[in-house]
Amino acid sequence: MAAELLLHASKEDYLNLIGQLDGKLTELGTLLTEYQNLKARVNTFVKDGDSNYQNMLDNVENNVQAVRRAIGITQKSRDNLQKTVDQMEDMNTNVSNLMSQTAEAAANTIKTAIRVEGLGL
Question: Greatest CA separation found in the chain?
Answer without folding.
Answer: 106
